[in-house]
Amino acid sequence: MKNRAVIALIATVGGIVGGFVLAELIGILGFLLFGKAVGVKYLPIILPVLGAVVALIFTSIWKPSKAHDK
Question: How many C-beta atoms surround the C-beta of residue 69 within 10 A?
């Protein structure tokens, strides 16, 4: 259970960082291509939530394989 919380926390932090970076890239590219600011308004909020949900689903489905004895 503690392992799942750590994975969800890492996914949340990664989503925050990724959301800010992706939002800035979209804004820069939109300004260069269209001459005005474009982007997704709540991307840094949406990505951490999405990352945490996907991480929790992935950890509940994925079971580590046990080493086979030879």
Answer: 4
**Contact between 59 and 6 (Cβ < 8 Å):** no
DSSP codes joined into one string, the chain: -HHHHHHHHHHHHHHHHHHHHHHHHHHHHHHHHHSS----TTHHHHHHHHHHHHHHHHHHH--PPPPPP-
* pTM, to two decimals: 0.75
Q: Which residues contact 10 (CB under 8 A, 6 or more apart)?
A: 55
Reported as a single tens digit per residue, the pLDDT across 47-70 is: 999 999 998 898 888 776 666 545
pLDDT in tens, 37-50: 888 889 999 999 99
